[in-house]
Amino acid sequence: AHGSCDPPLFVDLRYHGGENKGENLVILVGSAIIINLYTANDNHMLKSHEMVRMPGDNGGATCVAAVTHAITELKLLINLRTLIPLAENIPGIKSGERVILMDGSVVQIYGFEVSGQLVLAEAFYYSNNFKPIVVLSVSSSCPKLVQSNSTPAAPAFTLLDSLSTLIRLAVYHSGDRVVRIPLERMVNDEGERVIGRDDTSCSYPLFLKKFIHSHNWIHFETDSVMFSCQQETPYLRDWLSGRPKRTLIELITQLTPPGNQTTLAQNIEYVLSKSWVSVELKGEAWAQKHGMNGVLGVARGSCEPPLFLDLSYHGGVNKVENRVILVGSAIILSLYTANDNRRLKSHEMVRMPGDNGGATCVAAVTRAIADLKLPINLRTLIPLVENISRCNAMKPGERVILMDGSVVQFYGSEVSGQLVLAETLYYSDNFKPSVVL
Questions:
Q1: Cα angle at 152 between 227 and 38, to 5 degrees?
Q2: Around 207, how many Cα atoms within 13 Å sit in the side-chain half-sphere?
């Protein structure tokens, strides 16, 4: 911003959806370089047709701002902090000039086109103060990637294969195109500190990696996807595409830990309220009355009581005959492994929302059967239990008397879903179903 009359700005957006504001923090970083009228090589003013890509240089900032808005609208149970540096880039720093950055390192400048890299580098170093579980960044600071990446896909730089797997899963749902470009560690330190002379696709992210302490980092470049052409991507309109916004939303959704059973029960009840399905919610007293010691034991470490959803749909002539039973459990939260009782890492928490899959699947099937008005009688049983390893939780080796009178010895929190399902299946025998799914 040295050559501009307007001072630089730094936007700090905060969304607190988690219980503890300091835990499970996700950092979004997106830069906006407002204007750059000159090229880096021969310092000539850009032609009118060369200025077309200039609105896309704001894509990093607008993308992360839109993602933040979407996360707040979805009310995800996660803590999010979005850092957006805004600077107007008019030639002021001379080629060969040296700059002392925020971390104390000295960088020699060799071109104006690398301004986005300097802005991102200091934003990354500032984000280290918050100790995030993952950092997601978006920018359009490397035009040479358009030449090396011939496909209309957003390059994604990351060190970890686990994060690359998350990207691939997110892309399946979002429909965006993303290609991973690995970061090589064997690069000369001197080459990483010289900006502008070596504008290859790998030297740029390696330079940024020097300023971020977390290995859980994914950087998206938007130069190759900032504009869409319906000849190449007929499902997108022409001009600015906004990608990879949908992929980032899906990625953060995967990192979001699930809510408690009360929230899930309310969501299921709300969805089914518009269908011909009767919903009955049963609590801890009902479980004690029926002797569901397995369900009560799994929920013993939680402050939230276990819940039991009983859904009924009567499409047949006789409400009792030809009854189909659906059973799907939801184990809401288990932050610790069963073997060594260590806290799960961020990439291991990705499968946690899937632990609700049994409950959400049978609830969706029940709604579909009701909307189709099939001539069948259906009853859906959904136990909802929060599984947390606290001092009053079941300990390995402890014995539990289940609903049918059998004695089971407990050896780990990872088998809690089996106990919950076992007692729910035993309870379903009371309805004499023709089939149980």
A1: 50
A2: 32
Domain count within the chain:
2
Average pLDDT, the chain: 76
Range of the domain at 66: 9-255
Q: Give the model's confidence band at 312: pLDDT under 50 very low, under 70 low, under 90 confident, else very high.
A: very high
Instruction: Give the N- to C-terminal CA distance of the chain in Å, as an integer.
Output: 64
How far is Cα 159 from Cα 173, in angstroms, rounded to an integer?
23
CA distance 135 to 145: 21
Amino acid at 434: S
Give the residue-averaged pLDDT of 167-183.
75
Cα-Cα-Cα-Cα dihedral sign, residues 150, 151, 157, 160: negative
Q: Residue 122: which of 180, 83, 76 has the closest Cα? A: 83
Condensed to tens digits (0 to 9), the pLDDT of residues 359-393 reads 889 999 999 999 999 999 999 999 988 877 766 77
Same domain, 239 and 213: yes
Neighbours of 278 (CB within 10 A): 12
Q: Are residue 60 and residue 168 in the same domain, yes or no?
A: yes
The closest of 308, 288, 286, 281 to 421, measured between CA atoms, is 308
Nearest by Cα to 117 from 2, 190, 236, 219: 219
Q: Is 270 helix (H, G, I), strand (E, B) or coil?
A: helix
